[in-house]
Amino acid sequence: MQLVQPFLKFPFRFDVARLRAEIDAMPQHFWREHVEGFPGNSALTLITTGGIDNDDIEPPMMPTEALRASPYLQQVLATFRTVHGRARLMRLAPQSGVPPHIDKKYYWRTRTRVHIPITTHPEIKFHCGGEVVHMQAGEAWTFDNWRTHQVVNETPTWRVHLTFDTFGGATFWNMARPWREVQGELPLVQYDPNAQPNLSYETYVEPPVMSPGEVDFELTRLANDVRANPSNDPAAVQRLIGLTGILRREWRQLWAAKGPGEENLPLFEALIMQMMDQCQQHVPNTLRMASNNIAVMQVITADLTAMLKTPKVQMMGGPQLANVAIPIPAYDRPVFIVAAPRSGSTLLFETLAANKGFWNIGGEGHEHVEGIPELQPRNRDYHSNRLTAADAQADIVSQLRAAYAGTLRMADGTTTYAGLGVSRPRAIRLLEKTPKNALRIPFFKAAFPDAKFIYLYRDAQPNISAIMEAWRSGGFKTYAQLPDWQGLPWSLLLIPGWRELIGADLAKIATRQWRDTNETILADLAALPQNDWTAIRYEDFIANPDSELKRLCAFADVPFDPAMPGAGGTSLRNSRYTLTAPDANKWRKNEAAMAPYAAETSATTAKLAALPK
User: How far apart are the C-alpha atoms of 589 and 304, rounded to whole Å?
Assistant: First the structure.
C-alpha cells in the first residue's frame, strides 16, 4: 500500500517475554521455508486460507492451530481493531536478509503489512524508500511496500517478527502515526488471562471479474503515476493513456451488455489479451512509474492478472519479484515431456517433478513461450502451435531462458531459483511439460542443443475420448476467439491445418488432434539421435510405475528418487487436471461417435506399436 511516508508506527508496545514464551511452545516442525525461497528466511503460519498451513492469499481467512493455541498472540492482533488477512511469524537467520524489492502484486495495492518484532538486534536494519530504521522488540510498525524495501541482518541473532496483512479501517489508521512522532516509553499492552479477543478475518471471496469502478480507479491511478515521471517519453505516455482508456471503456461496456457471468469470462479474457498484446507492442521498457521507478509493464501485468481470475490470465503473472535481477542458469540437458493432449503427461510430469534431481517452472509454460511476441499465434496468423528450428533466433532463445529462470523452483515447489541468492547452483536440470510443446521439438532442440525428450503416448480410443471430454468441459480453452472458428471454443493445442476442421463434429476434431500430434512427434524424434529421446506408453506407466520411473531416471541421468509417487510400490496420485475418476472403460461412452474415424488412426497406431520400449 502506498503511504505518505516510508514508515508509520503505532503508539503502544507488547510484552516480548510473553510472546517469546508462546512461540517457544510451538513445535519446530511448524516452521518452514519462506514462500519466496529467500535463503535464511522461514515462516510459521497463523492466519491462512481455510486455517490450514499454506501461503495462499484468497479468503476465507481463518486461524491456524498455532494461533488458536496462543492467547496473547490473539490479544496482540485484536489490539489493532481491524479485519485480518494473512498472518505469520517471520524468522530471519543470522547473516541473512531480504533482498531489495517492491511488492507489485495487486494484492498489495489496498493492503498494508504490520511488523511486530519479537526477537531482534539493534544492528538489524529495515530499509524503505531511502529511510533506514531499527524496529525494536515489542513495537508495532507498518511501511510503504510500494517503495523499494529490504532487510539486512548482519548480526549473529535470529530475527523473529509477528506480521499480518490488513486493509485497515478508520480506527487502525488513526492509530498509525509518522514514526518520528512515536518516541519514548510506550504504553504496554499486557496479557489478560480473562480476555476473549474477537478477531475479524477476511471472508468475502471476490468475484472473478473486477468491477468497472475498480478498473477505472486502478488504471487512472497508473496513468497519473506514469504521467508524473518527467523522464518518460511524452508520446509513449500518451499511447499508454490511450490504451488504458480503451480498456476502461470496453470493460464497462461489456459489463453492462453481458455481465460478469461465467459464460462471459472468455469475452473479458479477450480484452485482457488484446490489452497485453498492445502494451507489449507499444509500451517501452523505458517507461517507468514516478512513485517507485519500476517499469510500467510490470505494473500493467500485475493489474491485468488481478482484473480477471482465469487460468490463462493468471499465467501472465511471471516472477513475483519486481526488481531483483535473476541470473540465468546453465540448462544442463533439459528434459521435455512431449505427448498428445490428454494422454497423461501431467501425471507423468507431476510424478517426475517430485524427483529432487529436477527443477521445474512451477506449472506449464504457455506464457513463457507465447509471452514472446514473435511466438504468439495471433502474430503468426494463428497458423498453429508449431515452432521449428528457424524460430529459435538468438534473441528469442535468450528471452525464453530468462522467462524460465524467473519461475524456476525445486521439487519441493517452494524453493525458487530467484530466492537462493549466492547458493544458487550454476547449472540445473530442467523438467518441462507443456502440451503445445509436442509441436515444438525442433525449436527446443535448437534452443537447447543438449535437450532430451520423453515421449508419452496413449492408446487411440481412450485418448481421443479424453480429448472430447476436455472440449466439452470448457476447462481447456486455449483460443476462445479463434478467427472463423465455429462451435465449441478451440481447446487444447492448435494443430496445423485446423481450418480444415471448421464445421466438423467433435469426434473428428479430437481424432485429428491425436493423430496429427503423434505423427508430428514421431517425425521430429526420428530426426534426432536415438539417445536424445525415449518413449513410454501411458498404459505401461500406470501398470508398472516403479520400473518405468527407474528407466526414465536412467535415461535422463538423474538419481532415482524413492520419494516419487509410484516408486517402491506406492500409489500414483490423480493429476491436477483429472476430470473424472480413472476407469479403463470410460472411453466407451464416446465409442459410437469415434467409430467413423477409426481408420484415420490405424497407421499411427502401428507406428506406436513398433516403438522401442
Answer: 40
Which residues, 6 or more positions from 514, have their beta carbon under 8 angstroms from its beta carbon?
340, 341, 460, 463, 464, 467, 601, 604
Separation of alpha carbons 322 and 36, rounded Å: 13
Residue 121 has pLDDT above 60, yes or no: yes
Residue whose C-alpha is closest to residue 86's, from 126, 66, 58, 124: 58
Name which of 364, 338, 394 is nearest 528 in CA terms.
Answer: 338
Query: End-to-end distance of the chain based on CA atoms, in angstroms?
Result: 57
pLDDT in tens, 135-171: 999 999 999 999 999 999 999 999 999 999 999 999 9
d(CA 86, CA 201): 9
Integer angstrom CA distances of residue 20 from 28, 118, 174:
14, 7, 28
- Summarize pLDDT for 195-254 with one digit per residue, the tens: 999 999 999 988 889 999 999 999 999 999 999 999 999 999 999 999 999 999 999 999
All cell numbers assigned to 192: 489478560
User: Read out DSSP for 270-331?
Assistant: HHHHHHHHHHHHH--TT-B-TTT--BHHHHHHHHHHHHB--HHHHTT---S-SS---PPPEE
| Integer CA distances (angstroms), 343 to 277, 435, 544, 594, 602, in order | 31, 10, 17, 17, 17
The pTM assigned to this predicted structure is 0.56
